[in-house]
Write a structure and sequence with these properties.
alpha+beta; 6 strands; globular
């Protein structure tokens, strides 16, 4: 089975991440994400959830809403925990939020932005589906995935979101179903709904 991988265009990394996560070019379109922006703030001239130039640069609220339309949720992962506590059989995949250089043509500008990256399992192997890569990067098996995630989370400016089907993260459940059963596992915080996001990463635009 070929691995579907959208490469970076303009500031559409949120769109590429969603399509790479769901392995389909038809999962979402720019028009759909623009409509989500309008629905989130219908009566504003400059929509705060996307670039005012119309190039993309969608914020996390757009990703949250898009995931919900596909019956999925994004759950923030506590970096103090070891990623091996995640039950890989109970998830759809992962989304990483990482810092990214801002380039204008071949020139790197002294500005820092945020970037979304999809990671998921395909045919028994996990892949880094970063839209800035030339091609999908095979991470490997479960242990190699956990090592990859652990390395990513060693930096304070990176965040990991576990993507699960909505039924797997029922708000009434005290124990998240995507955590392996362990007395040492505390319940991680579910990523806030779009109208309650409050961290700088949550509210920041990404590309």
């Amino acid at each position: 089975m070929p691995v579907y991988h959208e490469r970076q265009t303009r500031q559409l990394c949120a769109l590429h991440t969603l399509n790479n996560l769901f392995q389909s070019r038809q999962a979402f379109t720019k028009e759909q994400l623009d409509q989500i922006c309008t629905n989130l703030n219908p009566n504003v001239f400059l929509n705060p959830h996307r670039s005012m130039l119309g190039l993309g640069n969608y914020d996390v609220n757009v990703i949250m809403t898009a995931l919900q339309t596909n019956n999925c949720e994004a759950c923030w992962f506590d970096k103090r925990k070891d990623p091996s506590c995640i039950d890989l059989n109970a998830i759809v995949g992962f989304i990483l939020n990482v810092p990214s250089d801002y380039k204008f043509g071949f020139i790197t500008l002294p500005l820092r932005r945020r970037h979304w990256i999809a990671v998921r399992q395909i045919d028994g192997k996990f892949y880094n589906l970063d839209s800035k890569l030339q091609a999908p990067e095979c991470i490997g098996n479960d242990e190699q995935l956990f090592a990859f995630l652990k390395q990513q989370l060693q930096s304070n400016d990176r965040e990991l979101f576990v993507i699960v089907e909505s039924s797997a993260n029922d708000a009434n459940d005290q124990q998240k179903k995507w955590l392996k059963e362990s007395p040492t596992n505390e319940t991680p915080t579910k990523m806030a709904k779009h109208n309650n996001t409050n961290s700088s990463v949550m509210n920041g635009h990404v590309s």
